[in-house]
Here is the input.
Amino acid sequence: MANTKSAIKHIKTSEKRRKRNVAVKSATRTQVRKARQVIAQNPAEATEQLKTAISQLDRAAAKGVIHRNNAARRKSRLMKAYQSKLAQS
Here is the structure.
């Protein structure tokens, strides 16, 4: 257990950050999952869901929840899947 006042404060802030990070990661994963489902089923109508997922990834990267390169990689993979499905249909 923490002994000093500053260590106790640090534990509190760490817990706040952890809760925020968990919430942001969860929301990001949900949006990406929804986008992938829409791309697989109906790629012509996936633009709105794709925009939402990309926006969520950008927000997570801006907050430092995920690394910016991680966000860029995920966005790239989403767009690649979207473009390939559009080309097929």
Remarks:
- The domain at 20-88 is CATH 1.20.58.110 (Methane Monooxygenase Hydroxylase; Chain G, domain 1).
